[in-house]
Amino acid sequence: MHGRNTMLDKLNQRDKRAIKLGLLGVAVVVALIFGLDWLERWAQVRKSIARSRSQFMAISLPAEQREKLLSAVPAFEMPKTAEKQKFLFRAELNKQLKETGIKTKPLKFLPATKSTVPGYKLLYIQCSGQGELDKILDLFVNLKKNPYLVAVEEFVMKKTDTKDEKSRKFELDLRVSTFVKE
Amino acid sequence: MSGKKTDVIKGHSVIAITQEDGVFKAVSLSKESGSLNLVWTKSCAVDRMDWPAFIAECLPESGGEDRKAAGLHGTIVVGFNSIGVVFYRLEIPAVREDEIERIIRLQTESKLPLPAEQIEMAYRTAAVRNGQAKVTVAAVKKENLQRFVEEVKFVEPEKILLDSEGLVKTWWSLFSDGKSTELAVVVSIARRSARICLVEGGRLSNAAIIDMGTEDLTEQIGSPMDSSAVDRFMQDIRSVFELFGFADERKVPVYVFVKSVSDKADKKGVREFEIIRNIASALASAGFNATLCDFRFPVSNYLLSTDDNECLYEYRVPIGLGLMSLDSDEELALFESLYRPASAEKKKHWLYSLKAACSVTIMMLILSFIVFYLFDTAQLAHLNELKTRVDYGSLKAKHNLMEIVAAQRPDVLELLSKLSSVEANGIMLSNIDFKTGQAVKIKGTAGNAEQLYKFQENLLADEDFKDVKIQSPQQDEKSKKLNFTMIFNYKNYSQRRD
User: Fold this and answer.
1) CB pairs below 8 Å between A and B: how many?
2) Deepest in the core among B29, B231, B451, B463, taking most CB within 10 A?
């Protein structure tokens, strides 16, 4: 310690300034070498964040749009193969018909058709029955909650007794669709 | 301008330098265990030397580090000649320190002989009495101060003080008891001028200079005093008293400095002594309460030991300035904004230095880079974890499919509720036939054709119903009602989806 102090003491201001500038230069060079590498890595990190964010943004809608989507499709399950989807869709539909109290004939599957969505076909179920108008309306409310339903493709409501103006009983023919994997 | 007490300089020794009556004068005072010593004195005529030369004479190796090397560790103070300094005595309400300055500026600016920006001011407040504070304001042309600073700054004086303050300090230290003299006037007559200082509470509160000294009061050494000159002198003294605001001069004690005369004194010294004594007598005759202050017999017990008492008179101004420095008296800081001693610079906190500011900035910059980098890294890790946890691919596919379903799914309930709300009087619907990709068909009965057309019109009023057409209306013979079939397109569900 003493020796070092003595050496430093021997240096004049000019030498000391030169040493300081030298050390500063070395520090700048080291900072550039490691700093540039680090900055490059940081830039990569920021790019990855931007990419991930844009991916998430694609599926995260603004609140208003999300609300609209969920009011139209409150429940949805990804389509399975035809065998599985048939079973699941029919079971859920039967359950909903029972819950609303509409008496129906056995549900009938109709042949699948091409859909506008690649990789999926549309499978249909035909349903015929009778019920009060209130119950039919309840059914339409509940149908939305069927996670396998794509749409009500067809429905025919026919008053059972046209002469009785007060009668609220209707015959219902319904055709609903679901996606199945091709 | 400031009334604050500047940084207290409490050195053990001080060198005070002044220029008065065409002579540079310097003294060195030291204070050790309460004992005050006049170490040395130096003087030189102004026409032989300038400030730098005289200071160099006093300090053979003056300036900066060399001063220390020369063993001159004491403080240096320099006296500024009070000629040209204007004093104002004000009474202001006792307010906060920051408001005092504003009030003083307002009160004095209109009285200043020059525009305010050309004037430098300093003030000093006395004790507050009855809610009023007495303030002494000194004002002087800034240019004069700047010129003086340029002359003396190389010696790095700790303070530049008004020489009148030195005179008052000398009087206060050697000739007052420090208590009874609340208000006094000190008269110091030099060869070519006389200085009259008003003292309040031991501190200078006003000063004036008369351009007459001992040499103007007599034609030549040995000749009698010039009576007309004495009259003029007395008249000037009265004017100064008026300036000080005294209507009755007898009430204020006047102290006249007089040179000590020993046996060794030369004729010139004796004559000077006699002139001042005569002036004092003239003052007494004119009704002034005048007292001689003989430097051989200081009345105060202020301990100032020197081998030669006569020099106390010669060096009364620098001695006073030196005492002010040793006692850390509050001076009228006229030079505060124009001159900052090197020692004050050193006292500045290290944080205020440019180097420290740059270092802190760089450190903060690096730190913020690191924090942002860590934040981004953590955010990326979180997003990646989310991706693996929620199976982003299937989530996206599900989302897309839901959007397609939402677009294709007709809102049956909405259609039924609209038909129900539009239904006009006398219309009974019995059949609704909806099939995607086809027009909606409804059947029912109407009381008459008018009701039917009204129903059609109501449907058309809703923009969701398009191409509303009535097909084959037939009247039932029994009920006389009109059976009808109506077709229409509802929203885009009647269009084919391919």
Assistant:
1) 105
2) B29
pTM of the predicted structure, to 2 decimals: 0.51
> What is the ipTM metric for this complex?
0.73
Please enumerate residues of A whose Cβ is less than 8 A from a Cβ of B: 38, 42, 45-46, 48-49, 52-53, 55-56, 58-59, 68-69, 72-73, 76, 78-79, 116-117, 120, 137, 140-141, 143-144, 149-159, 162, 165, 175, 179
Look at A26-30, A154-158, B59-63 and tell me which has the smallest mean pLDDT.
B59-63
Q: What is the mean pLDDT of chain B?
A: 79
pLDDT (average), residues A58-82: 85
Cα-based torsion angle of the residue sequence B205, B141, B84, B239 in order, rounded to the nearest 10 degrees: -60
CATH topology assigned to domain B410-490: Gyrase A; domain 2 (3.30.1360)
Q: What mean pLDDT comes out for the span B398-424?
A: 84
pLDDT 10s digits, B56-75: 777 654 444 445 444 445 68
- Checking B262-268 for CB contacts under 8 A at 24+ apart, the result is B262/B296, B262/B309, B262/B310, B265/B310, B267/B221, B267/B222, B268/B221
B417 by DSSP, 3-state: which?
helix
pLDDT over 90 for what percent of chain B? 7
What's the fold here for domain A75-181? Alpha-Beta Plaits (3.30.70)
